[in-house]
Design brief:
With 322 residues, the protein is mostly helical. The chain has a domain at 242-319. It has helices spanning 6-23, 36-46, 51-64, 68-72, 76-83, 90-105, 114-118, 125-136, 145-154, 167-176, 186-201, 220-223, 242-255, 262-267, 271-276, 279-290, 295-307; strands at residues 312-313, 318-319. Strands 1-2 form a two-stranded antiparallel ribbon. It is globular and about 70 Å long. It binds iron/sulfur cluster (SF4).
Length: 322
C-alpha cells in the first residue's frame, strides 16, 4: 500500500477527530457514564449485528444485568433468551461465561489490559483492543471491518480490503495510529472510533458518500478515479441455510416456557399445534414449520444446537441451557 507522509497523517487525524466530534452518533456505550461492562456488552453485540438492532437489546440487558456479577448468577439460558434475534447466539453463551470469569478472577471488574481481556471467553484480538481502548482509554490499535474498508480506500486506493485480514493491513493500521506522547492516547482512541464511524456512516460498503466525507481531498481511491473492486465479494446466503433453521429453532425455544418435544422441533408447527402454544411460541413454530428444510437438515441443525450448548435435552424435551 502507498505510504502517507507524517504531516498528511497528522491532518487526517485532526480532520477525522473534528468530524467525529460533530457527526459521531450519540450511542449509550459511548457516554462517559457507561461502565466498562456496558462497553464490553456492546462490543459482543456489535460483532455481527448493526447498531439499530443492538440498541434496544443492549438497553434491556444493562437494565437487567448492570454488572458482570448480576449476569454471572443467572443460568446461561437466560442470556440466550435475552439475546433475542441478534443472531449468532453463541455470543450470548460466551458473554455469560465471561461474566462468571470476571466475577471469579477479577473481583467483578472488567479487566483493562489487552492480555487479560484476550484470555476471556468470546474475546478475540479485535474485541480485546476495542474494550481496552473504548472503556479504558488505552491506545490499542483497533481493526474491524469498517476500519479495514476505510484504510483500503483512503490509503490503499482500492474499493475493498482483501477478503481476509492481512499482516500488511495490521501494519498499516498500527502506522496510522496517532502518537501517544502528548495526550496519553486520547487522540489515538478517538481515531479508532472516528475511522470506524466513518466506515459505518459515510464510507459504507455499497455506496460511499465521498461528497460528504471529511477526508475526500486526501483519499487515494477518489484520486485514482474510484476503480472497481479487484474481486467480487461472496454474497452471504440466508434462505435455506442451517443458520436460518437454527435461528428458527432458537426462536421456538426462547418463546416457550416449557421444554419442546423433539418431534415438534423437527417438524415445526401446524396451525392446530401452534394454536395450542402461547402466541409468541405459536408464531415461532409456524415460521419453523414453513421453512423449506427437509428432516435431515432439521436433525443436523438440532444436533448442532445441542453440541454448541445453546440447547439441552431435559429428558422431557429440548430447552434453553440451565
Ligand atoms: S472519500 Fe469516499 S472512499 Fe474515500 S474515505 Fe471518504 S467516503 Fe471513503
Amino acid at each position: 500500500m502507498p505510504s502517507t507522509p507524517p504531516l498528511a497523517v497528522d491532518a487526517l487525524h485532526r480532520s477525522l477527530a473534528d468530524w467525529f466530534a460533530a457527526e459521531g452518533r450519540d450511542l449509550p456505550w459511548r457516554s462517559p457514564d457507561c461502565s466498562p461492562w456496558g462497553v464490553m456488552v456492546s462490543e459482543f453485540m456489535l460483532q455481527q449485528t448493526p447498531v439499530v438492532r443492538v440498541l434496544p437489546v443492549w438497553e434491556e440487558w444493562m437494565r437487567r444485568w448492570p454488572t458482570p456479577a448480576d449476569l454471572a448468577v443467572e443460568p446461561s439460558g437466560e442470556a440466550v433468551r435475552a439475546w433475542g434475534r441478534l443472531g449468532y447466539p453463541r455470543r450470548a453463551l460466551r458473554l455469560s461465561e465471561a461474566a462468571r470469569r470476571i466475577t471469579e478472577e477479577h473481583g467483578g471488574h472488567v479487566p483493562a489490559s489487552y492480555a487479560d481481556l484476550l484470555a476471556l471467553p468470546g474475546i478475540g484480538s479485535y474485541t480485546a483492543a476495542a474494550i481496552s481502548c473504548f472503556a479504558f482509554g488505552i491506545p490499542e490499535t483497533v481493526v474491524d471491518t469498517n476500519i479495514r474498508r476505510v484504510h483500503a480506500r483512503l490509503i490503499g486506493g482500492r474499493a475493498l480490503p482483501e477478503p481476509s485480514h492481512t499482516a500488511a493491513e495490521a501494519r498499516l493500521a498500527a502506522d496510522l495510529m496517532p502518537a501517544v506522547d502528548h495526550d496519553g492516547g486520547e487522540l489515538a482512541c478517538t481515531w479508532n472510533a472516528a475511522v470506524m464511524e466513518l466506515g459505518a456512516l459515510v464510507c459504507t460498503a455499497r455506496s460511499p458518500r465521498c461528497g460528504q466525507c471529511p477526508v475526500s481531498a486526501s483519499c487515494a481511491w477518489v484520486a485514482a478515479g474510484r476503480p472497481a473492486p479487484h474481486y467480487v465479494p461472496k454474497a452471504q446466503a440466508w434462505a435455506g441455510t442451517d443458520r436460518q433453521v437454527r435461528g428458527a429453532m432458537m426462536a421456538v425455544l426462547r418463546d416457550s416456557d416449557e421444554p419442546v418435544a423433539v418431534q415438534t422441533l423437527l417438524a415445526g408447527g401446524t396451525t392446530s399445534s401452534a394454536s395450542a402454544a402461547s402466541d409468541a411460541a405459536g408464531t415461532a413454530l409456524l415460521h419453523l414449520g414453513g421453512l423449506a428444510a427437509d428432516l435431515v437438515q432439521r436433525q443436523r441443525c438440532l444436533r448442532s444446537l445441542l453440541a454448541d450448548g445453546l440447547a439441552v435435552d431435559s429428558g422431557v424435551g429440548i430447552a434453553l441451557p440451565h
